[in-house]
Amino acid sequence: MNRVLISDPLSEDGIKPLLEAADTEVIQKPSMSEKELLEEVAKADALIVRSQTQVTRELLEHGENLKIVGRAGVGVDNIDLDAATDNGVVVVNAPDGNTISTAEHTMAMLMSMARNIPQAYHSLQQGNWDRKKYVGVELKNKTLGVVGFGRIGRVVTRRAKGHRMNVIAYDPFLTKEKAEKAGVDHGSLDEVLAQADFLTVHTPLIDATHHLINKEALAKMKDGARILNCARGGIIEEEALYEALQSGKIAGAALDVFEEEPAVGNKLLELPQVVGVPHLGASTIEAQENVATDVSYDVMEVLRGGNAKQPVNIPSIPEEMQDKLTPYITLSEKLGAFLGSVVRGGLNNINVYYSGELADVDPTPLTRKVVKSVLQLFVGTRVNDVNSYKIAKDKGIEINEQKSTSTKGFTNLLTVELETDEETRSIAGTLLNGLGARVVRLDGYSVDVIPEGHLISIHHKDQPGAIGRVGSLLAEHDVNIATMQVGRTDIGGAAIMILTVDKEVEPACQEHLAHVEDINRVQYLKL
Known about the structure:
- InterPro entries: ACT-like_dom_sf (IPR045865), ACT_dom (IPR002912), ASB_dom_sf (IPR029009), D-2-hydroxyacid_DH (IPR050857), D-isomer_2_OHA_DH_cat_dom (IPR006139), D-isomer_DH_CS (IPR029753), D-isomer_DH_CS1 (IPR029752), D-isomer_DH_NAD-bd (IPR006140).
- There is one protein chain.
- This protein is of the alpha/beta class.
- The protein folds into three domains: 2-93 and 286-304, 3-Layer(aba) Sandwich (Rossmann fold); 98-276, NAD(P)-binding Rossmann-like Domain (Rossmann fold, 3-Layer(aba) Sandwich), CATH 3.40.50.720; 319-526, CATH 3.30.1330.90.
- The chain is 32% helix and 25% strand.
- It is built from 18 helices and 22 strands.
- Strand 1, helix 1 and strand 2 form a beta-alpha-beta unit.
- The longest helix has 19 residues, at 285-303.
- The two termini are 47 Å apart.
- The relative contact order is 0.09.
């Protein structure tokens, strides 16, 4: 008999598959003390949680019989994924269960803001009948800017088009072809900001999206535009939004999420132009049932010896391949992160080539590392080796593997190539005996770079003084160069230099570098 512990409140209908399973005993004990939780998990084969229970390394190590942890929802911030993997515990979530609820909630917030419904209702409650004060705007023929064109962004788009809105979308993975197929306009972030009458964000909260909508972004929007956030608090810089609302630059905001929650006392909620609710995007009976049901089926499948549909942690490398593949895991991640940081455009293909001895084994675990490290730059840490392929498929990105016995001068060579709708870029790396991971080729230029720390990639024209000008400018910004690698194909032609520097390169410095004579392209990255 499998014992399933549920430590947070879940929909009774959602866990019905578990309750009705003859081979499963369900223990529902929400709000346990830490001591009680440790005692109960020691007897459990599976643990199902929402966001309240913190699944720590200590908790996982107490679960000697634990085979799976199910998160009835999307985020797994409360689960120590590394510890779960170390303890051989599968972690699953339910990324699709709240899509409809969140999309519908976004539209409800959009319409409430457009027609001042909450404000008018509150006024009526106070005994006022003021029709002129709450004149709104129609959605028809207005432009909705969608930042983040994943599952929820696409569903919101379909509903907005039902209101005869025009839609322009931005997503790092969205190409013009994919946009046309979805019936929306494709734009850069700046183009979406400039054209939107209403702007809605549907991205994860990662380093790249934290304060994505900041003072500078808001300044690029139309006067009188309106903005929504039903995704994650922190995507919009609240202080900048407050100032834009106060000045009238932004006419209204509809906020389901906040940088700090509970958001009681948040000054944005004092403004009459703001519609705010306490993080209700997934708070529907159906969504709560859906996420519980999805996780219940995955839990039963794993406990019965099958494979989970929505795993989110890293599988172990088969024992027979560990000696050859394990040393290349870090290199795979570094190459993917390096190239993903410098490539431009919407991603179409991830191609990975294996040469030498690596061609003798199944390199799929390494390919997963490459795909994960590329996608994490755009999607966030929820991408891992297990779900990276599915996310790539959902984004319409093809993954290709190719082997060759040709050594190309190295015992093993791992090459990553990214094809976007703007360019194709490649990077190759290997392990040097006693020296560790090395980047040995970038876009056809031979180099020798350790893929770690603060790096600057510069495409330039091979002319006297180009390197000196770069060094002088970095010195002006108090940036010290640790190492420099330069590669070229022809004298006086195109060339590349890769610098390792001692500290972060500020945006202003990057901007100055980009305008140095004979410099064509500057990209800073941290590995």
